[in-house]
Amino acid sequence: MSSELRLKKLRGSGGYIMANVNDDQQRKGSLGGPDLFLAPVGRLDSEKITKYYCNTCEKEYEGGPKIDYETPNEVVAENLVLLEKGQYICTTCGSVLAEYRNFSKPDEKAEVGAARPEAAAQDTYSPPANLAPQQSFQTSDSSVKTFNSIAGLVVYDSEARRVGVVKEIGIQPGQSGIILVVTKNDNTNVTIKWEEVRKIGEVVLLGGHISENDFKCSKCGNFNVAGSKFCESCGNKLK
Hints:
By secondary structure, the protein is mainly β. It is 8% helix and 35% strand.
């Protein structure tokens, strides 16, 4: 693979940067569309960044933004380690241009297993099945996330790929159980069944790999809830 650097625009939720990236970084930043995204790339060398644009300031700046990061090396699930998490921050107004998480699988050939029980006991919970859309789950325990607080969390699949951000939680008409509505990096929405959620902490970790081909019906083209085995529109068996 070529190591030649090319000047590219990489988008974030709060702006974009212009940076010289190699082929591997371009591959990571591509989510199948024409745009490149900063979150999947992770932390870039500051000298590779030539300028950035802040949506809050509505202004482009020469040079790079501030990059704050930490390396927790936290085991978030079996065979999945959170190596680093960070933010690209505007040096003028302090707004976040993009966030990223870098994960590692100690055994690349093995699948990602269940979240560690001790971690799950501290920062996860399962809401009751009859919880109404947008209703909060109230608790006096600060270690338990309330239902509404999940909105805005970044979602990753079991292959440590960024799926998007939780937009809202509710019940889909005609369906039973809770679903997450996740806004992907291309600004389209996907619905994910609650059973697909493995862990909720600083991020939402899913139990499998989420791909459009997994829930788009090949017969009628309907987009189904992730995890569905049959199309909700025509009944065709999904992959």
